[in-house]
Structure formats: structure tokens, C-alpha cells
Amino acid sequence: MTQQTTNYRFALTALTSLFFMWGFITCMNDILIPYLRLLFDLNYAQSMLIQFCFFGAYFIVSVPAGHLIGKIGYKSGIVTGLMISGAGCVLFYPAAQAEVYGLFLLALFVLASGITILQVAANPYVTVLGDSRTASSRLTMTQAFNSLGTTVAPFFGAWLIFGGVADPEVTGVSKDTVSLPYFILAGTLVLMAFIFMRLKLPNMGKVDPTEYIPSDAKAWKQKHLMLGAVGIFVYVGAEVGIGSFLAMYIAEPSIGDMSMSKASHYISWYFGGAMVGRFLGAAVMQKISGNRVLAFNAVAAVILVATTMLSSGALAMWSLLFVGLCNSIMFPTIFSLALQDLKQCRGQGSGILCLAIVGGAIVPLIQGFLADRVGIQMAFIVPLVCYVYIAYYGMSGYRPRASQMTQEAANAAE
């Protein structure tokens, strides 16, 4: 075993902790939504402003984050992202004390800005730590630990935020219970930042000004990258939209007929399916191409979402929960396929793809407006359409076209 292989494995092991943490934090939003909906008496669309502000940060911060990573490298970018996320968590305390919905949204925006920097640094870092042919498998494996975080978070969040209340819709919620979990997260994030400062990781991510770098943002002209960005947009939107409505949907009398507190625990089944699927997918994609697995999972998701829209009771509930299993390999596979053949523009490409995570802000908001008008069940037509597009990307849209960057690089060398 070479020294380089050993260093890469150590770096990948360290990076899995980041994927766990941002999965945990992102899933906490799904508990925060019903909590703040009760605290401020919000409708569905107003509740989705939580996801709008959180994922809206990706749209605003991703491109600047890509430039930042190019200057300071992946490791320093990770430390920066962790510290900013920790600051966002601390802001939950004054927001809770003031009982101002806008302050909660501001805290979420700051928290998500740090997570965005982590995403822009960590995702391409994983893809370059090893053989490019197994990049999808590697990123899927690390994303499995992201799903582990989303699986654990609902139990942790429901217990601390709802304070063990059996039926918060009847007894109400306390403004103080939201502060403790985010204080714990703040301390953990700052501790991780100091640990990463001390770790000896491969020095990657900085852009060498002496290398040829395509001008005029040529990464934006790569068709498979831009179609992949749309794929990331609709995937994140669909996953977040389903997760955001899950507790409220399961609590419906025609579906699960249970309290919001009890329904919140079922969010773990949704994200737990994604975790199991990612471990399985990492192994499967060593043998089967990522685009084929992506297309298969997307078609299965379409069938499951259609089933939940057209049924009721246990069938409607479990068909939606099993969509999590289909989600498993989608993000890392779309991400890896979209970065094919980008060469010196991988950092810029990663920034564009992370920019597309804004789908988590827009798609759930559209779903929320629709739910207020046609009902929560029929509003799932929005994620269904998203999965139809992902199936197309896995079947055809992922293929790199003739690269303009390659031609320009040749011209520059002449």
C-alpha cells in the first residue's frame, strides 16, 4: 500500500464526519418546521420559508464559495464553513428569546451559508481522492454517512425540540426548547473546526494561476454539467419537499392518524432508507454504471410517489417513506456525472452544482403554495415531476458532449 493511498483513506475517513454533520443539521429543519408552525401559527407556504431561507443560502453563497476554495484550498474551506455554521447555530438563542420568526430565518441562513462552503469544498475533495472511475461510488459511500445523520436527527430533534410532549398541537410548544439542540450543534461544529485545523490532509483545491484555466466561464457551456445542475435542483427540491411535509402528511387522519410528535419519528424511516440505499449503491456501482442505477431509482420513485397520491392509510404512508430508498444514490451520482471531463474547471463546476441546491428552497415553497390550494396529498405532484426529469438525466442527459474546453486548451497550447 502506497503512502498516497494511506493518506487518501485517512482523508476520506475524516471527511465522512462532515457529511454526517451537515446531514444531521439539514434534517433538523424537518423537525423545526412543525415546531415553528405551531409556535407562530403558520400555513404550509409560510412554513416552507424555513427551507427557502436555508437552501436559498446555496444560491447566494455557492459561487463565491467556489472562488474562495480556489484561493484557500479544500481544507481551509472546510474549517471556514464549520465556524460559520457554528455561528448560525448560536443565533437560535436570541431568535427563541425574542420569538421573532424572521430571526429564526436569519439564523438558518447563516447556518446554511457555512454548510454551503462545506459542500463546495468536501464534494469535489472526495471525487479527487482516488481513481476517477470510482468517484461516484466513493461519493455515494461518504453520502451514506450524510444519511446516517439525517436518520439520527429526527429522534434527537423531536425529543429535545418537542420536549417529550405527547401531543404538542394540544398542549402547545415552548420557545426555549429549540435553543439547547442548536447550542450542542454549535459546540460540536467549533470543535470539529479546530480538529480539522490540526489534521494533515492532502493539500488540494487551490487554483494554480500558472495553469491553463478556460476563460469566460466555459464550465457554464458544458451541456452535461448544466443538465446535471438542473438534476441537482430538482433532486434536492424533491427530497426536501417530501421530508418537509412528511410529519404533517403522516399525521393526517386519512394517512397515519397520529400526533405530530409521533409522526416526526417516521422521518427517520425516510432518511434511513436513503442511508441503507447508499451503502448498497456504493457496492452496486462498482459493477453497474452510475447512470443506469440513477435511472432505475428515479423510475421507482415516480411509481412510489404516484402510489401515495392515489391511495390512503398505510399504503400511502409507506409508499412515500420508501422514496427515501430511491433517493439514496441520486445526489452523489448526479454530482459525479456532471463533473465528468471538466478538468481545471472542477472547482467552478462544483460551485455551479452547489448553486443548484437552491432547489431545496424553491420546490418545497411551490409545493407549499399548492398544498394550501389542492391539499397536501395532491401537492406531491411536484416531486413526482422532479423524479421524471432525473430519470431522463440518467438515461441520456448525463453524456458529455464535445468539450469546448478541450479545444480551447489545445489552441492555448499552440
UniProtKB/TrEMBL annotation:
Task: Give the UniProt keywords, A-Z.
Answer: Cell inner membrane, Cell membrane, Membrane, Sugar transport, Transmembrane, Transmembrane helix, Transport
Pfam families from the entry? MFS_1 (PF07690)
Q: Which residue ranges does UniProt annotate as crossing the membrane?
A: 12-36, 48-69, 76-95, 101-123, 144-166, 178-197, 225-251, 263-281, 293-310, 316-339, 351-370, 376-395
Q: Where in the cell is it found?
A: Cell inner membrane
Q: Which InterPro entries match?
A: Glc/Gal_transptr_bac, MFS, MFS_trans_sf, MFS_TsgA-like
- Sample GO molecular function, one term: galactose transmembrane transporter activity
GO terms for cellular component: plasma membrane
GO biological process: one example: D-glucose transmembrane transport
CDD domains under this entry?
MFS_FucP_like (cd17394)
Topology with respect to the bilayer: Multi-pass membrane protein
Q: What is its main location?
A: membrane
Q: Which family does it belong to?
A: Belongs to the major facilitator superfamily. FHS transporter (TC 2.A.1.7) family.
- What is the annotated role of this protein in its UniProt record? Intake of glucose and galactose.
This protein is called Sugar MFS transporter
Recorded source organism is: Pseudidiomarina terrestris
Highest classification ranks of the organism: Bacteria, Pseudomonadati, Pseudomonadota, Gammaproteobacteria, Alteromonadales
